Fold this protein.
Amino acid sequence: MNNHSITLKINGEEYKLTVPANRLLLDVLREDLQMTETKYGCGTGECGACTVLVEDNKNICSCVTLAATMDGREITTVAGLEKDGELHPVQEAFIDEFAVQCGYCIPGMVLKTVSMLSENPKPSEEEIRRGLEGNMCRCTGYTKIVNAVQKASENMAGSES
Amino acid sequence: MSDFKTVGKNERKADARGKVTGRTIYVDDLQMPGMLYGKVVRCYEHAHARVKKLDLSKAAGVPGVIKVLGPEDVTQKDYNNSVIPLMVAEETAGMLGDIDDQNIFTTHVKHYGDAIAGIIATSAEIAEQAAREIIVEYEPLPVYLTAEESKQPDAVQFVESKPGNLAFELPEPMFPGNALGWGDVDEAMKDADFVVEDEFYTPKQKQCQMEPNTYIALYDDEERLHCWTSTQMPKSVHRTLSKLFDIPLSRFKLHTEAIGGGFGARLGMILEPEVCAMALAVPGRHIKLQSPREEDWLTSPSRHPGRYKMKIGFKNDGTPVACDAKFVSYKGAYYIDGSGVAYTTGAWLSSMYKWGTLRYKGETYFTNQSTCGAFRGYGNPQTNFTMEQLVDRACNKLGMDPVEWRKRWHKDVGDDGWCAGVPLSSCALDECLDRGAEAIGWKEKRAKYAQQSGVKRKGIGVGVMVHTSGAMPMLLEHTVSTVKLNEDATAVVTLACTDIGQGSHTTLRQIAAETLGFPFEDVYMNVNDMDAAGYDIGAHASRTLYVGGGSVKAACEDAKQQLFERAANELEANPDDLVMEEKKIFVKGSPDKSILVEDITRVGVYNYINPETGQRDKEPGQIQGYSSYFPNHNSPPFGACFAEVEVDTETGEVTILEAVNATDIGRAINPAIVEGQLDGGAQQGFGFALTEEMYFNEDGKCLNNGFTDYKMLGASDMPKMTDILVENPDPIGPFGAKGVGEGGLVSPIGAVANAIYNAIGVQITEAPITPEKILAALENS
């Protein structure tokens, strides 16, 4: 297996790594860098537990992304959302709206929400529900997650005005 | 409203911040120094076979492989992943015919993905590579996917002690005629003015908890075995593993971290025996065993699928004079929860309506599918799908409103619940039905949808449920709690109850704070300290709030009593005359005669001898409250779900437009958390009814062991849920609360099935109700 020397900028920090060509981004994060906030749920890009953000808040599934293809890219995990001890408004909204149960899907859900809101700051309920397809939750029935996205959207609009 | 300080309030979930930041640790997040990786080698060639030859030598030679384990390299003891046998007396288990039929690595492969060997290596990749070097020869055996096949006289026997592959039927000594019920059903049926009857099929549904299974085990230098697991039932698993490996409980520690969902999949063990066997084979090293999603699907239990025949006889006034039912389920490969589900499926049937007479038979047969076991609802979904559709069929014949019929005939306070001799302690189902009907606009919509002929037809349906709070008296119910009062007048509660996401550590904390009279913030829950925590059965049967809560309440009452006795001494008053407010204890009506709680708790710890008198001025000793709690009831919760659907008669597609779930939960300790249980339950109930089923080909290979081809309802498939929490405090539950963990899944099944019936005028007797089945039914109608 060929090795690749790559540089990843994760949550603002640069990491120089040598990875085999078949190494998944999820495994680099979780195992090589011990950034366990990104979760393995299915390994097939279906459940979204492994969601991370790349530039411009685009969301990708790190379980189906080869780390070598991410050379030079900026990656945000859920740990990168908190700034100076202040939670991101999406994180706050998930807590306030009781959108969190077992929590395993939540890092991915939070990042998917950040991504959705940066593209569409005022989504309708239908847009939220469609936007969350690809991120699975087995605990909440999605009701309180949808509420949290709506609340985050309102709070973020409020803070910008 | 009540004058509670924290009970009834939406206190923030204690674990939420760690989960939104990703800092919460699940077992798979742990990395131990020098950790090795385990791999279970599985048979993916056959669903039924004998291992004729197993050559591990080549695999053992792969660089980086530390050890390979065949069936004879690990304990030869039989065991069963279920922990239910611990919860009944040995004589009862004998009468039930509960058996241990599993080995760590098998030579008789009974399902696709059964475990045949183990590998321990320095990395997961090397273990994987070594697994490919194992040489196995199999003798294929006939594959039985249904009871109808495996019960044939010439079928290969799964276990010698279970002739005809009949894993379980209701035993004659406990249930004469192998049936549960009362009265003479045959005679009563003759008196019926009409009967409704049919055979239904209910699917093999998967729990799909989002966290796959990972374990770590270590046999340490003090000869102590450790196992990190996401089980729902740590203490029961602890005991079961201790017996399996002959290691005393004191030399065996179970470690729990955050648990990424359970829904019954983790009710008992999954791969704990495998990882512990690996750790014992390589003492001194941590072994991590990760089970990928597609493997979890095959190795953790599913819901029991099966065929459910039911015949109900009615009088023309609606009286249900007789109910005759039989559920034959497909057990899968192993006995896990074999007696439990076959029994409770009928128990739920017995506790819902005032049947004049009832006869329920439950049988379960081994098959070469992945094993079945516990799944949220534990037999109730199967009963709900069948019973609720037949009731609506009867209502149509009677010309009676389904809501009115249910209000007239549901069981009520004083009637036997799911176990004869344990009468229902509270019931607010009428209020659930009334408020739910009102919220969804039942009467108007029912009338409006009566005559439809278009391509897209709307329908509205109702389903009701009764469940339980804990499994008493069928199973042992027991939780131990201790509460320690710190010197600064804060408290720490130690117990082994798990929070599998449902929020129990938050609600139990509310119960503790309310009982102590302390602010919510001043109580800490010590919940992952299994050496310190006393016994708890574990999270199942909607019991954690009810039994765990009862235990926490009793322990806190004990601590508070001790506190008040000391205060009474100081204030020269009677403890019964004291009250506490803002951590100050005073004589009722005389707020000036008071003492700070902290002045008692501090002095109890920092208790000095007065140098002048040589005596102690105050009472010494740190106050601890204790409870070893066995509840004497099971306070069943009730609920009514209403669903409105639209059916496309050209494509067969069903859209759930709206749903209202009104549930009698006694009291909501934390309303937002209760709503979360109902919403999540509905997603699984609607999934059972509409989309979810594991499929197998004729060779027994599972065709959809992953999220790609197993359809759960997503965010855009789910309707907006309206939850109505009907609070009618139960006389027994802590602060009047009843269990809410499972019931929210049950009634949505009947509701959505009946809504489809209302829309298209035909009932679909096989779940999940897929578009294909709808189109076929419309064609035949």
The first strand of chain B starts at residue 36 and ends at 42. Chain B has three domains: 31-141+210-261+266-299, 379-470+635-780, 478-629. The radius of gyration of chain B is 28 Å.
